[in-house]
Write a structure and sequence with these properties.
single chain; about 450 residues; alpha/beta; 17 strands; 14 helices; binds zinc ion
Length: about 450
């Protein structure tokens, strides 16, 4: 049982809340209750967010690509460095890095993650004995940290728009449809080693890395699964797709596929107003990754019109250059303010921006990962986070100001406890497996850096 002095339930704030969990779900909610012997007592309980988009291995190169070499650095020069780094990764290293990153996410207050996993093969493209070896390693990492995993093996067939062959640096990603389907089935066997909230979805990498026919085929082969795709992150990508398919990426995708609530469109940065309205109407989730989008110089999302049109959204840490739930939400709002020269932008009408961002990302993130979570209500998965509202950033705020304080004034250090589908992983601000996971990570990354 969990006893919280206050909790944000699906019906609003409540005092002295006692939750009974069974099988990873919330079975009973009592308000104005009393703590009982054996209860885990916390200060303020919130629904925990899903981190809907991550490439864990990129965490190990955080801080290594912020040096200007010559001319103008861009997304594309960053990508070249990322390819060189990735080329040396071993399965053990990939697993150790993923475990650390999942743990960091939990300490930041996330309960689950959508791992958009595209490194499948050995250096040069040679297959591992088990085709899904690296997917199984990601799953093993999730098992070490006990995070809720939606694993998204990536279909990556071409090196650029127009079915351009893969470049040398992309050989570890490459699969045709048949091999991809076999890989997904191989990954599915790993689910038996994970708790039953774990899932597998599919992730055609981007329109430039697939073809219209392949996209249709892969969606048909995995009907009903979650579908994640990178889209319209960069102006060059928009121009390339327009030249190839005769329409902008989001326009083309919505016109040629049955995009619905099981889809998550990652970034969706460069959209016309018509694309924005149509994407919102599709029911898909916008997978926004504000820290990475700022780091890579992608641009701001068309937020006000998207929200006004009823669009769903969630957040992801993507490159994992900095894993911070509060900063992710804050950067989302600040990117809008800087563009518009205005304050309090990511909200429809009047009210708390922190509340809109936090609860919006909670429900959109859960939708994107196919998790029955995102709010504290009976029957939902117990994806929960407890924060300390006695902390300096929050102690003077009223209940209605807590989420504004969390998003704009606090750091992730206010997180005291975290549960992924009822698994109590963070206690007193520390993940219970922190020491072991960190030691393995340190050894793996030193070995990796020595090999580059
Ligand atoms: Zn990404």
């Amino acid at each position: 049982m969990i006893f919280a002095h206050q909790a944000l339930l699906s019906t609003g704030w409540a005092q002295d809340v006692r939750l009974t969990l069974i099988g990873g779900c919330i079975q009973k909610i009592e308000t104005d209750a009393h703590a009982q012997a054996g209860d885990i007592c916390v200060d303020t309980l919130l629904p925990a967010l899903a981190n809907l988009h991550s490439h864990t291995f990129q965490r190990a190169m955080a801080g290594m690509t912020e040096v200007r070499k010559s001319g103008r650095d861009s997304f594309w020069t960053w990508r070249d460095l990322m390819y060189r780094f990735m080329d040396h990764l071993t399965p053990d290293q990939l697993e150790a890095i993923a475990a650390l990153v999942f743990m960091e996410m939990q300490e930041a207050g996330y309960a689950s993650v959508g791992e958009f996993h595209y490194v499948h093969h050995q250096r040069g493209g040679m297959r591992y004995d088990a085709l899904a070896e690296l997917s199984l390693r990601v799953m093993s990492a999730a098992s070490q940290s006990a995070i809720g995993l939606t694993h998204l093996p990536v279909l990556y067939t071409y090196g650029g728009a127009g079915q351009v062959p893969l470049e040398e640096g992309q050989r570890r990603f490459g699969n045709d449809i048949e091999q991809y389907n076999a890989l997904v089935e191989g990954a599915r066997t790993g689910l038996s080693n994970l708790p039953n909230d774990a899932k597998i979805g599919i992730a055609p990498h981007s329109l430039r890395a697939t073809s219209p026919d392949d996209l249709t085929a892969v969606i048909a082969a995995h009907k009903g699964d979650q579908v994640h795709i990178h889209i319209s992150e960069q102006p060059k990508e928009v121009r390339d797709i327009q030249a190839w398919l005769g329409a902008r990426p989001i326009d083309w995708l919505l016109s040629n596929n049955d995009v619905a609530a099981n889809w998550c469109l990652i970034h969706a940065t460069h959209m016309t107003d018509d694309e924005t309205r149509a994407m919102a109407a599709s029911g898909a989730v916008a997978g926004l990754c504000p820290i990475t989008e700022a780091n890579l110089g992608d641009g701001p999302f068309n937020g006000p019109l998207y929200l006004k049109s009823g669009g769903a959204f969630g957040i992801g840490s993507d490159s994992n250059v900095n894993i911070s739930l509060t900063e992710e939400l804050r950067t989302l709002e600040y990117s809008q303010r800087l563009r518009d020269g205005a304050r309090n932008v990511m909200i429809v009408g009047e009210g708390s921006v922190g509340h809109t961002l936090y609860t919006g990302a909670a429900s959109g993130g859960a939708q994107a990962l196919g998790r029955d979570a995102g709010e504290i209500a009976i029957g939902k998965l117990a994806d929960l986070v407890a924060i300390n509202t006695d902390s300096m950033a929050l102690c003077a705020l009223t209940q209605d100001q807590i989420l504004d304080g969390l998003v704009f004034a606090a750091k992730d250090t206010v997180v005291t406890d975290q549960w992924s589908a009822g698994r109590h992983c963070v206690r007193g601000g520390r993940h219970i497996a922190r020491d072991a996971i960190t030691a393995r990570y340190r050894a793996a990354v030193s070995q990796l850096l020595a090999s580059i």
